[in-house]
Specification:
Number of strands: 7
Radius of gyration: 25 Å
């Protein structure tokens, strides 16, 4: 490897050296797009040299000279990747997208060069097979050996050279295709945003939402009009409020049209190619389908187990939809179609349960929800404190930065909140880690981000959240806590680096505190009068929670089982599919979820989780994890709720361990038993 210390590129590139900022926060004020390419190149070159030294080490393979050495390798590449991919989805400018398109296949090839190296695989196998040496290791170190061996094996390290070359080609092509899918989807969503010239048809929206739509239109050059930006899931939050049925239909149709209009942003050709290449990749690895390959290293272990759990739920949820539709049409006095479902659901909640989500919004001001809701619950549960650091610059002016400390003042790291939607931000909500805690890397602090897509009101207007947005905020902050609190030795286990079908569990648990009496009372305060949300409103809200669960479960399971259907195709079956819409219709009919009034939460052409966000064959993870979540909720209620004692136990066995031990084994220690699915079925009204 060449000496880079005198390189002019290196001297002026802030990514080449560890960040000088507190908590190793990337120096975003100094990082420019042109810095990423050279830093990626140098990071890969350095790690290749480090890995080659490990693979050619003439000494007998040991834990230290093989596993620890691998964990120490790639420090620059890890830092650059965290900085770039931590913000690329939130600042997806043309420059950033071009970098991602160029480097996605290069990074895939680099990863393959490591995971397919037969020399490394042999050394890891040798360490694993040395029973005496393994017995001398601590539990986390033994788990590291086991995970590396499993991951190398599943990745194809044991294949012959010809198969490995085929695998490298497939992985590189897939990396390019999934990046292109994300780029096209963002462009089509921006193109399809609904422009409204007459403000009267926005009746039902809050003033902040209307001002946000006006600001969005102004930024696109439509002064005096209003622009309704699209969101990632099929159901747009405005559909619950808009009284104009024609506008509801326009908005719903725009949501459904993404990626399927036959234009330059159509994603269906990418979907077919991705599915075919994934099926080919699975065959090379020795699995019948991509779903089998992916789930071989998960808590579910096999797609058959996923289907066994989800299929009965789908039947029960579909039956509940019919009853719910009858209630809605009784309220509406006319047939209810897909664009109307959310609107009439809210009206039924109002008429039958006296629950009005729109009337709650003045009590859900964003700053207060953050400070006196999610931060308050974390303080009660874990003793954490949060202090805003206006001296630290995020990657966008909208980003707020908070320092997180233990109750005794020990610093933990930083939490960055990026709340608002913009044209360069992908849809949905997510958490990312910019810095991960690791004893081996001498990194005692974490830096994590939460991204949402809340419309930004005009200057001076309060940001009033919807009920669903508050739920999402609590959910994503659960991921943030996971990233902040995980204390591990090895980077491999840091933060949220756990099985995909386990990672949603801590975030779903955190949703529980949203309606916990002492938490809700602390943040649900009218932004003008200071009045707390009346307790009877809360009681009615809780009483109405089970209403519409047939619809909510059906739209989710439709997407989860659609994901499974695409990835349950073998090579020949994948080649035979030529019509994306027809395949989707057939797959939904097969599981009894082909009801046009309840479209999937994500339809195939805009199913970013399955075709871009690395949830392929694993979108089931949300409800799979919810079994643990519902069971954990029961445990908290049985043991006194939001207390430090309970929080410490939950932290010790769940969010504090990262991926350093078997998650289900640790859960059994936490709970004293396996999770009981009955709690989830009761929550979703599926026990019948």
């Amino acid at each position: 490897m060449a000496d880079v210390t005198d390189s002019p590129t290196t001297a002026t590139n802030p990514l080449f050296e560890p960040s000088p900022l507190p908590f190793s926060l990337p120096p975003f004020a100094q990082i420019r797009p042109e810095h990423y390419g050279p830093a990626f190149d140098e990071g890969m070159a350095r790690q290749r040299a480090e890995v080659e030294a490990i693979a050619t080490n003439p000494e007998r393979a040991t834990f230290d000279n093989t596993l620890v050495a691998l964990e120490r390798s790639g420090e620059l590449l890890a830092r650059v990747s965290a900085a770039f991919f931590g913000v690329s989805s939130a600042t997806a400018t043309d420059e950033v997208q071009a970098i991602q398109e160029e480097y996605a296949p290069k990074l895939a090839a680099h990863s393959d060069a490591i995971s397919l190296d037969a020399r490394l695989h042999a050394r890891i196998q040798a360490v694993h097979d040395d029973a005496e040496a393994m017995a001398a290791l601590d539990a986390e170190s033994r788990h590291l050996v086991e995970r590396y061996l499993t991951e190398f094996t599943v990745a194809g390290a044991g294949l012959d050279d010809a198969a490995k070359e085929q695998l490298r080609d497939l992985n590189g092509r897939l990396a390019s295709l999934t990046t292109r899918f994300e780029k096209r989807l963002l462009a089509d969503a921006n193109d399809l945003a609904v422009l409204v010239d007459d403000v009267a048809v926005l009746d039902g929206l809050a003033s902040g939402e209307i001002s946000a739509a006006a600001e969005a239109a102004r930024e696109r050059g439509h002064e005096g009009s209003h622009l309704l930006a699209l969101v990632l899931p099929t159901s747009h939050p405005h559909l619950a409020s808009l009284t104009d049925r024609g506008l509801r239909r326009r908005l719903h149709e725009a949501q459904r049209a993404r990626g399927s209009r036959g234009n330059e942003n159509d994603t269906t050709d990418l979907v077919l190619e991705i599915v075919r290449l994934r099926a080919q990749r699975a065959r090379v690895l020795g699995y019948p389908t991509h779903a089998h390959a992916v789930l071989a290293d998960s808590t579910a272990q096999a797609p058959e187990r996923v289907f066994e759990r989800l299929a009965p739920m789908a039947r029960a949820a579909a039956a509940n939809v019919a009853a719910e539709r009858a209630v809605l049409e009784s309220e509406a006095g006319e047939p209810v179609e897909a664009p109307d479902w959310a609107f009439w659901t809210d009206r039924v909640r109002t008429s039958r349960y006296d629950v009005d989500f729109a009337a709650m919004r003045p009590y859900l001001e964003a700053g207060r929800v953050v400070r006196d809701g999610i931060f308050f619950a974390a303080e009660r549960l874990f003793g954490l404190t949060f202090h805003e650091r206006e001296d630290l610059t995020g990657y966008h002016p909208d980003v707020r930065t908070f320092e997180v400390r233990e109750g005794d003042g020990t610093p933990i790291g930083l939490f960055l909140l990026d709340l608002y939607a913009r044209d360069t931000k992908k849809g949905g909500a997510w958490m990312t880690s910019l810095v991960t805690r690791s004893t081996l890397r001498e990194q005692p602090h974490a830096v994590v981000t939460n991204n949402l897509n809340v419309p930004k009101p005009a200057p001076g207007e309060p940001t009033l959240l919807t009920y669903d947005q508050v739920t999402t905020l609590f959910h994503e902050f659960g991921h943030a806590l996971h990233g902040l609190l995980a204390e591990v030795t090895y980077p491999h286990f840091g933060g949220t680096r756990v099985f995909r079908d386990f990672v949603e569990y801590p975030s779903q648990v955190n949703e529980m505190w949203m309606l916990w009496p002492e938490v809700l009372a602390n943040y649900a305060v009218h932004h003008e009068t200071g009045e707390r949300m009346p307790q009877d409103v809360v009681d009615r809200l809780i009483a109405a929670e089970s209403f519409n669960q047939g619809f909510a479960t059906s739209e989710y399971l439709a997407a989860a089982l659609l994901d499974q259907a695409w990835h349950a195709l073998d090579v020949e079956e994948a080649e035979a599919v030529t019509d994306v819409a027809a395949f989707e219709a057939q797959a939904l009919a097969k599981v009894g979820l082909d009801n046009p009034i309840v479209p999937p939460r994500y339809s195939t052409p805009y199913f970013a989780h399955a075709f871009s966000f690395a949830y392929d064959a694993q979108y089931y993870a949300y409800i799979w994890s919810e079994v643990l979540d519902a069971d954990t909720g029961a445990w908290f209620r049985e043991n006194g709720g939001l207390t430090r004692e309970n929080g410490d136990r939950y932290r010790r066995h769940v969010v504090g361990i990262g991926g350093s031990m078997d998650p289900l084994a640790s859960y059994r220690v936490f709970r004293g038993a396996d999770a009981d699915p009955r709690h989830l079925l009761e929550r979703r009204g599926l026990t019948g």
